[in-house]
């Protein structure tokens, strides 16, 4: 049996905005919660040989905080743009409740939650487009998105997972993956064989480690969060409410 740990980045400074590939840091509460769960992993006897994360600061910092709390800062970490958050196109940087007020909840829910309908495209001349970011200068420009739905995110994250991460798990290495809501939802969809219809209802809480126990064929035997169900539910409810319009 193999164990593999997934952790979504901690709460960021843009929790009420469509962040996507915008390189936003963790908020202080996110730093503190991430450290708490890093210590929890250590307390429960987890250890890791190799870490994976995205090119985005909030994913990188989350992994650094966890590994530091576990006294594992020395292990190698591989960063891959394929593990980035979903690109939210022209919605990136927009306030979520204000976007709901402008376009209506139904339309925003389609952009935010549907499996195969992307948000409006970002023009390639826009400074928010990854083609204009030197971080991605070595990536084939044709692969850099102007917008993505979850299906698009699946089509880049899952092949990377299959090619680069699964062989390391199979080789017996203990792996931790620090990722983002939609790249992790894509990988969870693959691991658990979740349908296109049902994946839209899946939420991944901030910084609570999700442990997968995998059989010899790397098919999941079971998975579980390292937190009480009430805590997982509370964090997920907060995520669901991020687009709510508050009338003051």
Automatic annotation (TrEMBL):
<comment type="pathway">
    <text>Carbohydrate degradation; glycolysis; pyruvate from D-glyceraldehyde 3-phosphate: step 3/5.</text>
</comment>
<feature type="binding site">
    <location>
        <position position="96"/>
    </location>
    <ligand>
        <name>substrate</name>
    </ligand>
</feature>
<dbReference type="InterPro" id="IPR029033">
    <property type="entry name" value="His_PPase_superfam"/>
</dbReference>
<feature type="binding site">
    <location>
        <begin position="85"/>
        <end position="88"/>
    </location>
    <ligand>
        <name>substrate</name>
    </ligand>
</feature>
<dbReference type="InterPro" id="IPR005952">
    <property type="entry name" value="Phosphogly_mut1"/>
</dbReference>
<dbReference type="InterPro" id="IPR013078">
    <property type="entry name" value="His_Pase_superF_clade-1"/>
</dbReference>
<keyword id="KW-0312">Gluconeogenesis</keyword>
<feature type="site" description="Transition state stabilizer">
    <location>
        <position position="180"/>
    </location>
</feature>
<feature type="active site" description="Proton donor/acceptor">
    <location>
        <position position="85"/>
    </location>
</feature>
<feature type="binding site">
    <location>
        <begin position="19"/>
        <end position="20"/>
    </location>
    <ligand>
        <name>substrate</name>
    </ligand>
</feature>
<comment type="function">
    <text>Catalyzes the interconversion of 2-phosphoglycerate and 3-phosphoglycerate.</text>
</comment>
<feature type="active site" description="Tele-phosphohistidine intermediate">
    <location>
        <position position="9"/>
    </location>
</feature>
<dbReference type="Pfam" id="PF00300">
    <property type="entry name" value="His_Phos_1"/>
</dbReference>
<keyword id="KW-0413">Isomerase</keyword>
<dbReference type="GO" id="GO:0006094">
    <property type="term" value="P:gluconeogenesis"/>
</dbReference>
<protein>
    <recommendedName>
        <fullName>2,3-bisphosphoglycerate-dependent phosphoglycerate mutase</fullName>
        <ecNumber>5.4.2.11</ecNumber>
    </recommendedName>
</protein>
<dbReference type="GO" id="GO:0006096">
    <property type="term" value="P:glycolytic process"/>
</dbReference>
<dbReference type="GO" id="GO:0004619">
    <property type="term" value="F:phosphoglycerate mutase activity"/>
</dbReference>
<feature type="binding site">
    <location>
        <position position="58"/>
    </location>
    <ligand>
        <name>substrate</name>
    </ligand>
</feature>
<feature type="binding site">
    <location>
        <begin position="112"/>
        <end position="113"/>
    </location>
    <ligand>
        <name>substrate</name>
    </ligand>
</feature>
<comment type="similarity">
    <text>Belongs to the phosphoglycerate mutase family. BPG-dependent PGAM subfamily.</text>
</comment>
<keyword id="KW-0324">Glycolysis</keyword>
